[in-house]
Amino acid sequence: MADRIELALRPKTDAKPLDLETAKRIGRVARAVTVELDEGGAVFGFARPVGDTATARGNVELAARFEEPSDVRPRTSPTSRPR
Is the pLDDT reported for residue 11 higher than 60? Predict the structure, then answer.
């Protein structure tokens, strides 16, 4: 969709999949408009006025860090969703 930015947050191979509750919390903190589960991860949709893809990606990265223990390496990494 051209009217929004979509970013996928995927768990690392050795981590458990994201659940809907956690994905929604990350989406709320990152100010995503939509949150969908997809293949063990989540896809976050952002309205174009959020700025650009880098801003949306930074929001998702920060929100995901709040959900993960600080002594554990990040278990997810955001990527642009293929169309």
Answer: yes
